Amino acid sequence: MLISGGTVVDAAGERACDLRVGADGRVEDTAIGLVPRPGEPVHDATGKLVVPGGVDVHTHLNLPLGAVRVSDSFATGTRAAALGGTTTIIDYVTVQRGEDPMETVGLWQSWARDSAIDWGLHLTFTEPASESTLAAATAGGITSFKLYLAYPASLQVDDGTALRLMRAARRHEMLVNLHCENGDAIEELRREAVAAGRTAVAEHARTRPAALEAEAVSRAAVLAEITGAGIYIVHVSSADALAAVRAARQRGVDITAETCPHYLYLDASRLEGEDAADFVCTPPLRDSWHAEELWRGLADGSIQTVATDHCPFWRADRRAGMAHPHGDAADFTDIPGGLPGIETRLALLFEGVRAGRITVADWVRLCAEAPSRTFGLWPEKGSLQIGADADVVVWDPSRRQPLGASYLDMAVDHSPYEEMVVTGWPELVLSRGRVVARDGRFTGEQGWGRYRARRPRTYLGPGE
Ligand code: MN
User: Fold this and answer.
1) What is the 3 state secondary structure string of 373-422?
2) Tens of pLDDT along the chain (464 residues)?
């Protein structure tokens, strides 16, 4: 296929040129004036942007949570992702305490085989992991794992375990992803709130203050400094946490950071209304001035990546709660947390381009290039250089798209952006050269997606 007349934007810059997709599903050529071959389909991209398919490195598909489950499967979630211009995801395998991590990986692989786009996996450790587990993970192309510094009852690791796993990450050339909130202090604040009868949804944000997010980022950064591990802070939600990231990087810590569109567009006032339960996520939505600082962080390079933390639940499950599937959620602590977003990330960030907050080049870097580089998928993903996978999005910068749930494809019955209409949406999406979405219609196939083994992280100099 020849994509002609568009403006190609990738790490190599922004230039008016044509792009040829080879029969092998890779980018064959990018140049001015490519001549169609006999029988070659031509897509006229005049006035459109031609960009690498989005790489979403933070998703939760099919994840069980207490008595409920994330509403999107790998089949439905990746289909929605493709429609919105994302062609690669990395999903978190969540290993519960007592489980064999590689067995849990096998379970995730059995689910993920339904994917319509390419996929990779991160691990999540909730207790110490053995050398053989880490060796098996990296040998299988899982070169990052997450640690939670929150949720003491189920997911949290203590600082000693975190330090030990950071040393191991360095030995095994892995990247350590961290959910940064001070779980023990938050648990106490939640107990206090419930005991005092403060059980409304808005307490979710009040009991998880930004200061406790920043504290956990700082603590993680100190452990990274001691161990020499590379760390990646998932879903930075506040100015406080961003300041901690910047401070750590300034003194030489190997630290990168991610934020999510919902922290850029939504604020804590959403937790006051009738639909409050639909806006519970962790870290919580903040006062709106935090978003201004996050946008600045995206523009100045302090935050490298935008991912979704896609974690949707049916409204009925949100109302019922995790522990009480047949009743009403007892209080704010029982609402399953997480927002849909896998379909809308590129469009929401493109609004930032339109508003002059970031450039088109920033948009491509944040949504595709940086996540690919950070997680060992470069240059096959997030790039349009010759030989890269032909995961290509022809982006129509003037196409209007409402973000209400009924206009979107994700398996969820509410949208955090119900009244919003964006300008800019894919008109054509290719996954390894195959058209998987055209003019808002899915044309791909369940199971087309392939597992992508990821490269280990490169560390310079000896570890401890
Ligand atoms: Mn998450």
Assistant:
1) HHCCCCCCCCCCCCCCECCEEEEEEEEEEECCHHHCCCCCCCCCCCCCEE
2) 999 999 999 988 899 999 999 999 999 999 999 999 999 999 999 999 999 999 999 999 999 988 889 999 999 999 999 999 999 999 999 999 999 999 999 999 999 999 999 999 999 999 999 999 999 999 999 999 999 999 999 999 999 999 999 999 999 999 999 999 999 999 999 999 999 999 999 999 999 999 999 999 999 999 999 999 999 999 999 999 999 999 999 999 999 999 999 999 999 999 998 999 999 999 999 999 999 999 999 999 999 999 999 999 999 999 887 776 566 667 899 999 999 999 999 999 999 999 999 999 999 999 999 999 999 999 999 999 999 999 999 999 999 999 999 999 999 999 999 999 999 999 999 999 999 999 999 999 999 999 999 999 999 866 65
Measured in Å, residue 439 CA sits from the centre of ligand 1 at 30
What whole-number distance in Å separates Cα of residue 299 and Cα of residue 361? 10
Please check whether residue 280 is in contact with residue 204, taking contact to mean a CB–CB distance below 8 angstroms. yes
Pairing state of beta strands 392-402 and 421-431? antiparallel
Give the distance (Å) from ligand 1 centre to CA of residue 279: 15
Asked if the bond preceding 379 is cis, omega within 30° of 0, the reply is yes
Helix or strand run (H / E) with residue 239: helix 239-250
Task: Catalogue all structural domains in the chain, each as residue range(s) with its CATH number.
Answer: 1-50 (2.30.40.10), 53-361 (3.20.20.140)
- CA of 58 from ligand 1 middle (Å) equals 6
CA distance linking residue 317 with residue 329, whole number of Å: 9
Report CA(306)–ligand 1 centroid distance (Å): 13
Cα 177 to ligand 1 centroid, rounded to whole Å: 10
